[in-house]
Write a structure and sequence with these properties.
Elements lengths: L6 E4 L18 E6 L17 E7 L11 E2 L10 E2 L12 E14 L2 E7 L8 E7 L2 H4 L18 E3 L2 H4 L4 H12 L14 E5 L2 E8 L2 E9 L2
Parallel strand pairs: 9-12
Antiparallel strand pairs: 1-2, 1-8, 2-7, 3-6, 3-8, 4-5, 6-7, 10-11, 11-12
């Protein structure tokens, strides 16, 4: 079976580093831009009656074929192996992801609809292969058990950014950056308080260190 993208996502996540660990954990907004063949308001008729959507998408930045039947989830320290189908690892046989997002609204670029969503865990440009409405009575399981992922387990960090660095970021993007940083953008099994980390956010490179529960931004500069 061949599948083709119906849309792609646009946001400030320019690399895999610092993307939310799961969907629905943030209120950071993204845009879903439909490909030309599907950019028709009829394709989303009645969608505004739903508060949340399912996105089926592709791990487009994986650089090699993923044939292993076991993976090492960061939540387990990156050392213990579990079955690939018992994890949400991005390294999967068919490279497909599933995310639930909140539908914040619908805008139009000319005649083409644009979905505004929050809570996406996709990097900018990720292809989306299908969009389905989230239905509460069937999709929400109050008695679900989450195995080794039962607890969120990711404490919030105290973020410190000097004014000289913060002023480089447009005011409209500052709250988004703070949300990314306070949720600890490091890989889950990293705890080196002497290491400087970096990631691309919008048109900027963000450098930071973490010591215990405090994250300090060490540098911010624009990138091409």
């Amino acid at each position: 079976m061949e599948i083709t993208p119906v849309a792609h996502i646009e946001n400030d996540f320019k690399s895999k580093f610092a993307v939310p660990r799961q969907s629905g954990l943030s209120r950071i907004k993204s845009k879903i831009i439909f490909e030309k063949e599907f950019a028709d308001r009829n394709a989303i008729r009645e969608i505004e009656g739903f508060s949340h959507l399912w996105l089926i998408w592709g791990f487009s930045e994986n650089e090699y074929d993923c044939k292993s039947l076991t993976v090492r989830p960061p939540r387990l320290g990156g050392n213990k192996r579990v079955g690939v189908f018992a994890s949400r690892s991005p390294f999967r046989p068919n490279g497909l992801g599933l995310s639930s997002v909140r539908l914040e609204g619908v805008e139009y670029s000319g005649a083409s609809p644009v979905l505004i969503v929050s809570g996406a865990d996709l990097i900018d440009g990720t292809p989306i292969y299908d969009i389905k409405p989230y239905i509460k009575f069937s999709d929400c399981r109050a008695d679900a058990v989450s195995g080794f992922a039962e607890s969120n387990g990711f404490p919030l960090l105290d973020v410190e950014i000097k004014d000289e660095h913060l002023k480089i970021i447009p005011e409209s993007k500052r709250s988004t950056l703070f949300e990314i940083l306070k949720n600890d953008p490091r890989p889950a099994y990293h705890s080196d308080n002497k290491r400087e980390y970096g990631f691309r956010f919008s048109d900027f490179e963000i450098k930071f260190t973490v010591n215990n529960n405090k994250l300090e931004v060490t540098d911010i500069y624009a990138v091409n």
